[in-house]
What we know:
Strand order of the largest sheet: 5-2-1-6-7-8
Helix content: 25-40%
Number of domains: 2
Bound molecules: adenosine-2'-5'-diphosphate
Number of helices: 10
CATH topology of the largest domain: Dihydrodipicolinate Reductase, domain 2
Radius of gyration: 20 Å
CATH architecture of the largest domain: 2-Layer Sandwich
Amino acid sequence: MQDREHKRNMKQYKIAVVGATGMVGRMFLRVLEERKLPASEYFLFASARSAGTTVEFMGKKHTVRELTEDAFKGLGIDIALFSAGGGTSKVFAPIVAASGAVVIDNSSTWRMDPDVPLVVPEVNAHAIPEYKKKGIIANPNCSTIQAMVALKPLAVKYGLKRVVYSTYQAVSGAGMGGYSDLENGLKGEAPKKFAYPIAFNVLPQIDVFLDTGYTKEEQKMIEESRKILELPNLRVTATTVRVPVFHGHSESINVEFEKPFEVADVRKLWEETEGLIVQDDTEKGIYPMPLYAADTDPVYVGRLRRDFSVENGINFWCVADNIRKGAATNAVQIAQELIRQWEA
Ligand code: A2P
């Protein structure tokens, strides 16, 4: 009875999606439809290119609006989910935040800003209130998100001495352009988004190269892991690779712990971890794969085994749908947690 009373009194929020016509934006809409947030109204934004077109969402047609400096004025929007590229976020996130909305931004622009929380809800929901400083919450990089869900309980129980990431990332992580390059490449067409063909190939470059010799994607994984785990001095390195897979990032993760451990205890810990599914039975040939993780929300772990080359180390394989948990689902979960904290 009390619960029902509470629901009846619960505020209904106005929610905007910026970049609603893009790869992640469309998934925002699907995840919002699935999760049914307490929303009274939705507003969809994109560039002038698609302004005026209609999108079927929540059982009715929504007209896409052009994102301009004044577009949010007077609408009373509470939460704005952004996935319209870094440049758009840089310019418009502060403008939208100034209009009174909390921006949940999927680009990398604000992630390392000390006044912006970088959130994976299962890992550090406690950081969300820091949005009050700038009105922005950053959604981490797709490869980082899935690793965080698996690593957090291990960091708490055993302490992390060193982490080595090697990734196998899907083309959908590069937006519509990346997706089309694989689709058309399979028919023999030349790539438009990537520098080289991705069909029947593997590209050891994601994003631009930095002076250090690392790519920006690798640097993101390193810096974002430290921020989310609140371990600024964590020894962590990464090699990020694009593979000809449409959906789902895979990662080989090697971890050294501070403390001794038992493999069976790590597995048990993971089985009790929210958002994580253990698929690990080598006798039956069971392990996570992107084809089967696609279009689902959990993070999958398997191939768990002791690294005999160091004192306290493990190797494991970690897979998740990069557009769902790696982007849209995580952002919508942040919105849900934000609302939960407002209502508490
Ligand atoms: P549009 O479709 O009008 O170009 P993806 O990463 O899959 O390519 O998607 C990018 C998304 O970001 C699209 O929805 C795109 O809209 C949107 N977008 C790109 N530039 C802008 C901009 N300057 N203002 C608003 N939305 C933008």
